[in-house]
């Protein structure tokens, strides 16, 4: 894997507020104090969550954090009365580009094809291309990307919100595709499930092309 030049971010007030909120929620969930501020502190907390927890436990803890950000009645109302139609999916894609830039970096909306429940193909602008994921770049960990971001985020939107979401990270250039309105496939059917550690980022990376051990452990 070729070396990717590290991106330098200049967080504004909006970014710092969201980083602080998420960091506090994560610190409460894991029962630890925030030792360093800013985005690096957020990543450090993510690494703390991984310690002593298997993949399933990591995903469940992140799910708790995500649910704590939105009142349960709101989740119920959206899940029950807001169908994942074209407008809803496109609105979520737009909000993702605005609200999550602090977390994943710059992203753009694109048109995608969705297979509906009637097996019809519908074109809609509910796709989001993350140009280079900040979280993956800073953590340098395949397992953290999958268990601390991809899987719990997909589950949160699909099950808690009732709005299907599929995320497909690219471990070559650190980009990521998000598609609102598309149900996520089982992890074992995706290329991400066999992704080796990132040689230029992970200190425990093996020279053999085997899956990152933190994906399932």
How would you describe what is shown here?
This protein is an alpha+beta fold and 217 residues long. It is 46% helix and 13% strand. The protein is built from eight helices and four strands, in the order ααααααββααββ. Strands 1-2-4-3 form a four-stranded antiparallel beta sheet. The mean pLDDT is 91.
Number of strands: 4
Portion of residues in beta strands equals 5-15%
Strand order of the largest sheet: 1-2-4-3
Instruction: List the helices and strands in order.
Output: HHHHHHEEHHEE
List keywords for this structure.
217 residues; globular; 13% strand; single chain; alpha+beta; 8 helices; 4 strands
Which secondary structure elements does this structure contain, and how are they paired or packed?
Blueprint: H1 13-30, H2 38-50, H3 55-68, H4 72-81, H5 86-99, H6 101-104, E1 107-115, E2 121-130, H7 134-139, H8 142-161, E3 165-169, E4 176-180
């Amino acid at each position: 894997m070729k070396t990717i030049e590290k991106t330098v971010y200049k967080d504004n007030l909006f970014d710092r507020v969201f980083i602080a909120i998420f960091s506090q929620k994560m610190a409460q969930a894991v029962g630890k104090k925030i030792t360093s501020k800013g985005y690096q502190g957020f990543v450090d907390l993510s690494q703390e969550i991984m310690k002593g927890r298997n993949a399933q436990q990591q995903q469940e803890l992140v799910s708790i954090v995500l649910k704590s950000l939105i009142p349960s009645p709101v989740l119920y109302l959206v899940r029950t009365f807001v169908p994942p139609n074209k407008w809803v999916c496109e609105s979520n894609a737009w909000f993702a580009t605005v609200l999550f830039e602090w977390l994943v970096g710059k992203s753009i909306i694109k048109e995608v094809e969705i297979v509906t429940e009637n097996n019809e193909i519908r074109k809609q602008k509910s796709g989001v291309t993350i140009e280079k994921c900040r979280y993956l770049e800073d953590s340098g960990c395949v397992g953290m990307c999958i268990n601390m971001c991809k899987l719990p985020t997909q589950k949160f939107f699909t099950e808690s919100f009732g709005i299907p979401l599929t995320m497909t990270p690219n471990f070559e250039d650190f980009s990521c595709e998000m598609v609102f309105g598309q149900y996520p496939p089982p992890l074992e059917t995706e290329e991400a499930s066999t992704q080796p550690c990132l040689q230029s980022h992970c200190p425990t990376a093996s020279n053999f092309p085997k899956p990152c051990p933190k994906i399932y452990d």
